[in-house]
Input
Amino acid sequence: MIAAYLVMLIPLIGILFFAFVGHQRETGQLNVRFNAVTLLATIWLAVNVLNNGTILSAGKAFIVDSFNVYLIVLTAFVGLTTSIFSAPYMEHEKQRGKLTEKRLKLYYSMYQGFMLAMYLVLTTNNMGVMWVAMEGATLATVLLVSLYRTPESIEAAWKYFILCGVGIAQALFGTILLYYAAVQIGDGDNALLWSVLFDNAARLNPEILELAFVFMLIGYGTKIGLVPLHNWLPDAHSEGPTPMSAVLSGLLLNDALYAVVRNKMLVDGATHTNMAGLLMMGFGLLSFLVAALFLHRQKDIKRLFSYSSIEHMGVMTFAFGMGGASATFAALLHMTVHSLTKSAIFVTVGHAAQLAGTQQMEKIRGLIKTQPEIGWGLLIGTVAIAGFPPFGVFTSEFLVLVATMHSYPWLAPVLLLGIGVAFAGLFRHIQPIVYGERPEGQQPIKANLWPVMIHLALVLWLGLAIPDFLANWFSQATQLISGSVPL
Amino acid sequence: MNLEQQDFYTQAILSMAALVGLTSFLMLGQGRLLRLIFVFALQGLLLTQTTALAAYSLDSHHLYISALLTLVLKVLFIPWMLRRQVLMLNLHRDVEALKNNTFVMLGGAALMVFSYYVLHPIVQTSSAVMLNALAVSLSVVLLGMLLMISHRQAIAHVVGFMSIENGLFFAAIVATRGMPMVVELGIAFDVLVAAVLFGIFFFHISTSIDSLDVDRMNRLHEVDR
Output
């Protein structure tokens, strides 16, 4: 359990360190080291869980089981690679005069703050604390979205603040209803603990839990970016600094979905109906289709990929909602591969935008001719995210499709259509960007593409063969969520 | 349900719920920012009283702490901060002309009825008092959202945002004698940080668009036109 406390403690030290010690030349590298140490701690934690099963801390404040442990490692991993990318990126932004020393200090401090909030969401056993940490993540990222202090970024940050704040207030109402149902059967202090609730789920009042879930889904759904509550997402992603887009898409959305799934497990236990699942399927499918269509009309490259995030979160919500072993397994896998691919894409997009000096897709041209590694990185990333074999996204989307064929065959054509539309939307924009004629005077920039290559290699690996220990994790998690073993 | 047959605590809670609901309506129709902030502080005071009452009647002492937190945050600190911002940005002289005030008020009434409708299933599981208390809290949440939709000033949005939190706290106190202490402290911390962030944002918004009228923040579009 020491590992779990370490995972929380290191980012906390990080916040204070960057806030007070101040900016030096090496701050970016220090941020990398903080994240690297946290990653080691999470791996230690994961090994513990793999050997001993679910860990419940003394006082039951934290729970680490097979479902959240892989998300914790994933969070630490993406946090690390993004920090490797962000160190030279932010330095470059400073040289262009877009940022001052003081803002960089704020940036690194809040980066650690965001990571802390993410770990807390994932490890806490208390549904109330989960809400607090989720709101904390919003507060930490609001300042990052407005980091450039342009009118656009301030507008985006304000929209994000208000919409997510109000949205997530609904989730608090849901949590209060959940607590209300819980105190009717048990004692007050432990009543919000997830492990206690899960053990007693069958005794919870189904009517109250159904109501609570509706509020939870709306609340955390705002954070997942489910249509029609997605409005803040493209703005926040496109106006904030690029490393932020990578962690928002790769981590924050996952964690919000994680919160919904934890709640769904409770509601399913209480109601014995598929009501929660059907709601999630509806919202997920709607998000998927609407985002696929919106991909076609984008002009800003970061907005394009933020719509792609909405689309993929839609697929995951749909799959978790469908339930059953194979769909749940697919959703867990999709969470992983989407995080890896999307953060890799945002890293390349950040470099491409710095190369062209703009985020307008019309003006970004000829990447392969100017700097082949960025061009190829973007192209391969897009191929991966569009769901081409042999990448991992293909595997998970295929599994979702197979599960749909089994449970709701009439929805399979809709899914296929959406995948096709999204694929066309992505490639009509990306093709000229990478292959087009390069503009006059476009110079290569200093770029570190190691994070991208590692991420994409991992996604490729997951597409070709899922390693045993990972498959084992996913199976255990699937069993925990859906109650049956996959395949 | 016959009101006279209820015990004193129940009657007091029901009156408090009615008053909290009333303050939400008062805020909804208010065009002057300073008065809006005053009514918001009033709502916070009602919430403090409710919490203290619950702490006393139900003998749950940890509620005194949350009463104190509410008093400091929602009655003193946030209204003081907002008032200072309004005076500093010289907004206290303008009256915001609310469009369709009648419709907004009718919409508010409809939202209240809707809250009762939504929460009706729980009446089988608990007392009618609980239904009233929860329905009023939900309607305070929804009225807070309506307040944010109908007003254009960023300060009014913050008041709406914070009054949503008031509604949630009311539900937490009345329905469940408050959340566990660690959650209450966490939420109070979040509210405090949010209040400070709002202050920072007022400054940035007013320097970037030269007013706090959020209708003038319209640079970002869903798709390019």
Notes: Chain B touches chain A through 51 residues (CB under 8 Å). The longest helix of chain B spans residues 181-209.
